[in-house]
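Example: ATP-binding protein.
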Amino acid sequence: MAADHADDYSPSEDGLIASSVDGRSFSFQGVSRERLGTGSLVSVDVPDRPPMMGQLHQLRLGKNGVMSGSVRIIWSYNSEGMAAPSSGLGFRAAHIAAADRAMVELLLSSSGALLEIGTFTNTDHFDARLIPKRFNRHTFWCGQSGSGKTYALGVVLEELLGFWSTRSPAGLPRLVMSSRDC
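Written out as structure tokens, the predicted fold is:
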């Protein structure tokens, strides 16, 4: 089922059905009573494969409440918990639904996302966390004037400094520069 044919989908079929050529991203369509929006985390259930988690990138609402869109797979289960998808195997029919709290927690903890910065508001208000060790390189922060970049960066810097002061501080070099005229 292609996402651009959402108006042809029968609304009597309940659920969101996905298909993928490469196993890393997919399109979907269907009818769902779940609250989903761009950025939502979803579980992907392909018969005879480990469960996967993806993030909704595009969403379109067609006639009769039929939803269609695209999702990027971000994690898949393996015997040790979760790992980045690497199979590259496509699929014809998978069911997708909003990811539950346990699945999101497993994703965050297995990826090393320990730095709490807020909540995902487009889901059931799960914690939003960053991976502290990823700040060991350059970080680019951008947004419109007045969008809260300085405040948000201050929150993240405070969290990073607090995080590293309670753990081994060696391993995160720090240099903070700010200019109001940039």
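The domain at 3-106 is CATH 2.40.30 (Elongation Factor Tu (Ef-tu); domain 3).
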